[in-house]
Amino acid sequence: MSIERWDPFRETISLRDAMNSLLQESFVRPGGMGLPSAATLPLDVTETENDFVIKASLPGVKPDDVQITVHGDTLTIRGDSKAEEEKKGEHWHLRERRYGSFQRSVALSTPVDSEKARADYENGVLTLTLPKSEAAKPRQIRVGNTAKAQVGNGSKK
Predict the structure, then answer these.
(1) How far is residue 78's CA from residue 17's CA, in Å, rounded to a whole number?
(2) Which parts of the sequence are annotated with region: Disordered (predicted)?
(3) HSE value, Cβ hemisphere, 13 Å, CA-based, for 17
(4) Is 0.85 topped by the overall pTM?
(5) What mean pLDDT comes out for the span 60-75?
(6) Alpha helices in the chain (DSSP H)
(7) CATH class of the domain defined by 33-84+98-135
(8) What does the pLDDT read at residue 28?
(9) For the CA atoms of the chain, what is the radius of gyration?
(10) For 82-103, what is the HEC assignment?
(11) CB 132 within 8 A of CB 64
């Protein structure tokens, strides 16, 4: 049996190894095919007093291939972008456009009234107008004048 002196630096990794590991785990290769990530469905979300307006870029996607659901305060946009098939006598040199299924969910700050929602699709941009539910809208409560205060010196006449 031999006794080995404890070295606290033996089990640590070098800064170079740590950076290499970090970059390898987080690196995203451009031009990847298949299922796009949530970042490939860019959204703009704005809020007014009465509703939310969401714009989604969906170039090349047919409106029939998009499903929109609202559950409480969560909006989900799902769809499918179909790939072009290679034709006989045609060979791809570069193929960067993404295809496949996509899904993006966004939590809104208040519930919306899905019965009054409107969706428009023009030039590859989906525009959703989601009115806030009546329960979620701020209401002003007026102070009533039910009991009049009597001002005086406190004696009855």
Answers:
(1) 40
(2) 137-157
(3) 4
(4) no
(5) 89
(6) 15-26
(7) mainly beta
(8) 52
(9) 30
(10) CCCCCCCCCCCCCCCCCCEEEE
(11) no
